[in-house]
Fold this protein.
Amino acid sequence: MEAAVAKSGVREGMVLVSAMHITAAVYVNDHESGLIEDIDEWLEKLAPFRREYRHHQTGEDNGDSHLKSLLMHHEVILPITAGKLDLGTWQRVFYAEFDGQRSKRVIVKVMGE
């Protein structure tokens, strides 16, 4: 994203980062491996894989992936200040993939002046 912001020439504005699939998420948090593992465990407790999801009656088997995506959200909007992505000291943007069965993409839109 830093490269997209730099390439855009935007000095003041925002950048939208969006997972273009319903079983993925984009989020901002601390870049620390223990925390990432804690988030994964928390999500698994809240939305564990279960064969009983009604979604699975449609021929899919990823009901838990859809629920995890809802919990984490599919996009973030971040500020750009003085031509740089404006994140806190420890903040990083993460892409989370909960399904992995199909090719995915992320869209990055830089907006501003």
Summary: The mean pLDDT is 95. The helical segments are 2-8, 33-46, 63-72. The chain has one domain: 2-112. The radius of gyration is 16 Å.
